[in-house]
Fold:
Amino acid sequence: MDFAYILSSTQGRIPRSQWWAGLVILVIIGVVLALIIGWVLGPTLIGLIATLILQVILLYPSYALSAKRFQDRNKPGGLALIGIGLGILQTLARLVGLSNPFAPTTVDWILNIALLIVGIWYLIELGILRGTVGPNQYGPDPLEGRP
Structure:
């Protein structure tokens, strides 16, 4: 499995198995770094800024991973920006004081419901449903030739 390609290129298609593998890697990296940020900086302004920087760092690999999976489903890779954008919007809302994870506001509820809906959609679309059988406009079927 070519993780450099999976996490850095937006061209082509990947099957579910590679999406799941890439997702696990990104989640482990994100959780470990978020725990370190939370432990060292806590829920301070500096901690929120560090969290936003972490999200920006993981933005492109997350986009590349999901864009190729959407393309395997014969859909535009740009759909991957929906979930990424909502996550960044949530952090920005906390940064400017519109959101508080310890005392949820209306903004928190709206963003959390939107993230839940998009998360379920991504789980079904990217993690469960098979890609387009045969070639599509984004490239050859990544499962062709496999038993």
